[in-house]
Amino acid sequence: MAESKALTTRAADFSAWYNEVIARAELADYSPVRGCMVIRPNGYAIWEQMQQALDRMFKDTGHQNAYFPLFIPQSFLSREAEHVEGFAPETAVVTHGGGKELEEPLVVRPTSETIIYSMYAKWIQSYRDLPVLINQWANVVRWEMRTRLFLRTTEFLWQEGHTAHATEADAEAETRQMLGIYRRFAEEWMAMPVITGRKTESEKFAGALRTYAIEALMQDNRALQAGTSHNLGQNFARAFEVTYQTAEGSIDYVWNTSWGVSTRLIGGLIMTHSDDSGLVCPPRLAQWQVVIVPIHRTDEERTGVLEAAGRLLGELRAAGIRTHLDAREGMKPGAKYYEWEARGVPLRLEVGPRDVAASTVMLARRVGPKKESVPMSGLPARIHSEMAAMQDALLAAACERREAASLRGATREEFVERMQGVGGFVYAGFCGRASCEAEVKEHTKATIRVLPDEEFRSAEIPATCMWCGGASVAEAVWAKAY
RNA sequence: CGGGACGUAGCGCAGCCCGGUAGCGCACUGCAAUGGGGUUGCAGGGGUCGCGGGUUCAAAUCCCGCCGUCCCGACCA
Question: Which pTM value belongs to this model?
Answer without folding.
Answer: 0.95
